[in-house]
Amino acid sequence: MAIIKTKSYYVKPSDSREWLIIGDIINHKEVDVEIKTLDYLFHCEPKEIEIDGIKVMCSRLCCYTGCYVSKEEINEAQRQIPKISSYLQEDSIKLLKLNNFQIYNPDDYDPEENLYKIRCAPAEWNFADDDEENEDDDEEMEDNKETNVDEENDEFDLPPRNHCIFLMKNGYCALHKYYLDANENWIKKKFNICSTFPLDLRPQDGTMAFMSDFNEFAFGEVECLSSDRDLKEKLNYPQIIEEMRDVIIDRFGETWFGALSQCAKDFRVGTIDLDYIYSDVDLE
Ligand code: SF4
Ligand code: SF4
Q1: Which of 61, 170, 226, 269 has its CA 20 to 30 A from that of 45?
Q2: What mean pLDDT value characterizes the chain?
Q3: Ligand 2 within 6 A of 166 CB?
Q4: Whole-number Å distance between alpha carbons of 157 and 159
């Protein structure tokens, strides 16, 4: 097997040319890494944008539908509700009151990943049921009556009408704010998907990738996920690996992060020869 070894890392082939196994020389910890994460510019900072003359925070486009999380994560966040309800928007409180302050929708379940969806306000809708849109519309009309929402306002219009119940008016996340205010480690406590977005870090599987269809996660075009690299360079966007440094270290350790960071730098200057690494691998 063709392996490239340096003082801090080694790389070896994965089972696809879009991936590389990166190991650190000290602990020999190996993570299967999607190659495009090694050179992608990303920076997250909620800011005001304008859509059809309407000013909204960009997080209205990425936090528009809540997120899928585990039962353990739900339990942790549910415990914080009494402490963070003053941060939440009125429509979120209204929806929570209608649902006995249960923060997730038990009917919206992803059996493959064993995850439930956090509620979105003012009216919930089931993204998984897009092909049953008409039926949903009827149900949603009922919801809207309950929550006094303007029924003329279509849920697929931009800017999106719905938002995750934890999205605050100022475009920041109430859970994130709570953990910061309480001096708790948000990287460990906040929902995993929200801490690692748009990366998919899976220490349990030893993989690091983009979330599937990551550039379609936002409801509309957002700068941070734009494919316009020139724009991001002009705005001095950092490499995603450096932007997400703390969360990658939390999931995979500091030594492995050092290996990843050096490997990514070498990859970007062209010293990782993929043809060599995959030279004696039969991928069929
Ligand atoms: S991920 Fe992008 S769209 Fe979402 S809050 Fe951050 S900068 Fe805005
Ligand atoms: S929990 Fe916070 S970061 Fe996650 S979708 Fe909701 S508002 Fe956004």
Answers
A1: 269
A2: 89
A3: yes
A4: 6
